[in-house]
Every structure is written in structure tokens, then in C-alpha cells.
């Protein structure tokens, strides 16, 4: 493959633009040299992260992953491009074989995905994530899948073959109005709740099989008061709820934090953000009071498998 430029984009070495768009996104293809990357920082409890794609069509306003775009212009246009790692399944099989030879008695732990959504819209056509799951089954890794897409239910037949699996469904707010402001391209809240419920009740009991389900309310966005009680009650479908504050509130650099596009929205919801720490604490207290049978965790500790 050769280097490619398109309307000012330089998507990276050995990357080509496919002659198509998928929705509003420009679609690129790339042969990856590796797909299992050493897990660091927030998810360093895992051996590896696995990202089938670069970029994410959901383009959420607050997404920290935009900081890892190939260049500044693509970062600015986050949500409007995606790079397919077209040889990912082949590379993954090779890397898992290598791991197994060195660690025959310890399957790896894998977090999929850290800087993309493995079930973003392009997956409906490419089925790359599905192929990666098929490759992983014989090696039985401890696998955590992070997504906001109901498309994950498509793969229940493969997911049922994993012995140590956790599905994290991202639902940062209980209000559709807020969702449409902060993540207008993402699936609806009812669709996500329906998907996690469908998954949870699709796994028959099997000995030595530990399948778990989380709802990650991260970053914690406002939920309108009239929606709050109903939303919290519906979170009961999960065995864990994870909350985390909005990255930009901590006066950190935006380099790998919340995108600047999200900051004006904080003004729109000033009734929440003017007393953000209190809003956070109030929501946390309500979770604990209304969901006595659900594990409530905060931040990094909530993203582990255990």
C-alpha cells in the first residue's frame, strides 16, 4: 500500500482511502503490524488493548480518543473518518499463538476497545470485530468489551463461547435530550438498555463460565430530574454500574482529555456543572440507595474484569 492524502488528510503511512463513504465518514484501510497493544495507564490491569479500527464514527463531543488521531486535522474532524485494520484477524491469530507458546497456562486479558468503538456503524459491513471474536475463542482470553452500540447483540452466538467475559455498555446519561447534545450520532438510550438486557438473558448457566455485565455512566453527564429515577431503576439489569466525572472538570490538559467541543455544552447545563461535585455525589448516593443489589464502582476500579 502507499501513502494517501485526501482533502488535506494524511492518514498515515501505508494507509489508503477506499473509494467510498460509510454514512458521513471517509473510510480508509490499513494493514496493521500489531493489534494487541500493551495496556497502560487507566486500564493497565489488562495485558493488552485491542482496537479493530482507528477513529470512531460516533464522534462524541467529549471523547478523549480524538487525541490519538493521525494528525491535527483528523482530530478536528473526529467522527467523520475511520480506518479499518483490514488484516487484524490474521495478525491477532499470530499474536495469540505466540502468547500461548510462551504462556500455555495463562490466557491473556484483553480490553476491546480503548480508543474506538468495536461496534461502530462500519462494523455492520466489515464484521471485523466479529472475526476477531472468532479468532479469540480457542484461546479463551479474559475479555472485556466496551461499546455503546446495540450491534453487539448480533454476536451473541460467539460471545456465548467465552468463559470469562464482561460487556461494558456505555450510557453516560439517562436523558435523550442530553444524549443528543453530547453524542448526537450515538444509539438511543432505550436501544442500549434493551441490548444489555438481551445479552444478559441470553447466557445460559454454565459451570466455570463467568459472564458479567456493566453499564458505564462515564463520563457522568447530566440526567434531567424528570428522567433520573426511571433511568436508575433500569440500570438494575447490570451487575455493576461505573461512574466517573467529566474529564474537563479537573483542569487537566485537553491533549488526551475531553474535546473542546464539549465545553460549551457545560454552559447549557450550568444547573448541573455549576455544582458539579455535588451533582456527582448526589447521583452516586441515589445509585447506592436505589440499586442495593448492584455493585457501584468509580473510575479506574470499575473497568476491570473482576
Give the mean pLDDT.
89
Oligomer: single chain
Number of continuous helical runs? 11
Report the structural category: alpha/beta
Choose one word for the global shape. Answer: globular
Distance between the termini: 41 Å
| Biggest sheet strand line-up | 5-6-9-10-11-12-13-14
Helix content: 25-40%
Q: Classify the beta-strand content into a percent band.
A: 15-25%
Number of strands: 14
Radius of gyration: 19 Å
Can you summarize the main beta sheet? Answer: 8 strands, mixed
Question: What is the chain-wise order of helices and strands?
Answer: EEEEEEEHEHEHHEHEHHEHEHHHE
Residue stretches low in confidence (pLDDT < 50, at least 5 long) are 1-9, 248-257
Give a quick precis of the structure.
By secondary structure, this protein is α/β, with parallel strands linked by helices.
Notes on the structure:
- The protein is of the alpha/beta class and 306 residues long.
- It contains eleven helices and 14 strands.
- It has an eight-stranded mixed beta sheet with strand order 5-6-9-10-11-12-13-14, with helices on one face.
- It is globular.
- Helices cover 30% and strands 21% of the residues.
- The chain has helices at 72-76, 88-102, 123-126, 128-136, 156-159, 176-182, 189-200, 225-234, 263-268, 270-273, 276-290; strands spanning 5-6, 9-10, 15-22, 25-30, 36-38, 48-50, 53-54, 81-85, 109-112, 142-147, 164-170, 210-217, 240-243, 295-298.
